[in-house]
Amino acid sequence: MRIAGSTVAIAGLGLIGGSLARDLAAAGARILAFDRDVDSLRDALDAGVVHALMPPDFAGVEGADAFVLALPVDVAPAALIAAAPRLARVPLLTDVGSTKRSIVAAAERLGLGARFVGGHPLAGDHRAGWRAARAGLFAGARVFLCPAAGARDDAIERARALWLAVGARPEFIDAGAHDERLAWASHLPQAASSALARALAAAGLRPTDLGPGGRDTTRLAASDPALWTAIALDNAPPIAAALERLETELATLRAALLRRDRDAVHAFFAAGRQWHEGAGER
Predict the structure, then answer these.
(1) Which of 27, 39, 85, 278 has minimal Cβ neighbours within 10 Å of its Cβ?
(2) What is the strand order of the sheet 116-121 is part of?
(3) Is 155 helix (H, G, I), strand (E, B) or coil?
(4) Position 280 confidence tier, pLDDT thresholds 50, 70, 90
């Protein structure tokens, strides 16, 4: 897929969709966009990033070379259903959500699987919206690509080319395996950061009371709660399993502290350091 001269339709101009629009426009693509936030659309038009608007029924997407769903995971399937009648000639259908099983399954149910390649760039931030979008967000970032069953080779190659054009590093993975992996690698850290923020709040501490380490550890707690509610519910069983393991680890430390077991406490912190230094890598 040649980006220069192509037309890419993007539904959603938040951090990910907006940043993708910026980079693709800079590479010479014509950007069609839809967003529920009128101010974001106006700002994107004024910035010269978006060249034409799509209405809520996605009229105009018919001639696009790619259609990108950059919407929260709980509304993306409905948006795909709404757009489906207009997508017969669009050669690449994709998304950027943090969970993949649901949207890939929706594409398959709609008969769109031959052209659908789910995507998830690991380039998130606790900030959100068009104002958080920025050029170069995907440079060097890993992006998971999850083709639907029966996805055509040309659609897969188009998805790969799209992300290579913005500097990302595509990696192919099954949608189910993706959700299991991200429950640990992304969703658990978010839940842990939010839980820590809640505990600190209950103890009467404010963010300004924390040192650098505390601020680093609680940064994710500033993320959009609506976005993370949707992700957590969509990937609930794997996240619940990851949380159970975290609870076990915290209980281990708590018990060791109550016993004043120096060796066990040291082993707890040493295991964390060992993992961070790479000895725990598979």
Answers:
(1) 278
(2) 52-53, 30-34, 7-11, 66-69, 93-95, 116-121, 142-147, 169-172
(3) helix
(4) very low
